[in-house]
Amino acid sequence: EGAAIPEGATVTVQIQDTSLADAPAEVIGEQIITGATGFPIPYQVAYNPSQIQDNHQYSMSARITDSDGGLLFINDTAILVIARDNPAEDVEIPVIQVGG
């Protein structure tokens, strides 16, 4: 990325069940990281394997917010994971800078 992460920022990484197009994604696992200063940001999201269904679609979501909760970075592409032969580990989540 090359961009800096400001002091006090929070990184939220989630695994979401995105199977239903007309419903909000269900969060399957989440990790909240503070103190990140640059990219890449190591993460490990724990989830309960019993919640995983082979016929569902699971995606990664990454958001970086400033100390006031304002959005700084977000992933803007679907990162499919876990089911349907998608990876379950070592998944890179590219993010884009938002705002001005």
| Helix content bin | under 10%
pLDDT < 50 stretches = none
Mean pLDDT across the residues is: 93
Order of helices and strands: EEEEEE
**Radius of gyration based on Cα positions:** 14 Å
Structural class: mainly beta
Net shape: elongated
Give the end-to-end Cα distance, rounded to a whole number of Å: 16 Å
Give the strand tally. 6
Total separate domains? 1
Q: In a nutshell, what does this entry contain?
A:
With 100 residues, the protein is mainly beta. The chain has strands at 10-17, 26-34, 58-65, 71-74, 79-81, 96-97. The protein has one domain (10-97).
Give your account of this protein's structure.
With 100 residues, this protein is an all-beta fold. The protein has strands at residues 10-17, 26-34, 58-65, 71-74, 79-81, 96-97. Strands 1, 2, 3, 4, 5 and 6 form a six-stranded antiparallel beta sheet that branches. The two termini are 16 Å apart.
